Amino acid sequence: MKYILDPDAQSEVLYDLTKDPGELTNIAAGQALAVEAARSRAAPAAKATPCGRRDGGLGFGEQRMLEAMGYVEGDNTP
Fold this sequence. Notes:
The chain is an alpha+beta fold. It is 33% helix and 13% strand. Strands 1-2 form a two-stranded antiparallel ribbon. The longest helix is centred in the middle third of the chain and has 17 residues, at 32-48. The chain starts with a strand and ends in a 10-residue tail after the last helix.
């Protein structure tokens, strides 16, 4: 399973990667217990990860992840 929370859009998606490796079908609506379990597992990490600033800029965590993947260079944080 893959769970994605978008707090800005106030939406959640859940994919069954075994049956849907292309992530085409959001099964969250029919899997309330699985969504709640994923939400509970994700909550501590979401609170501990300083990324996703509301002003549209990159948070520290996002900046470092993008640098590690080669998408950005240097320190572009404000």
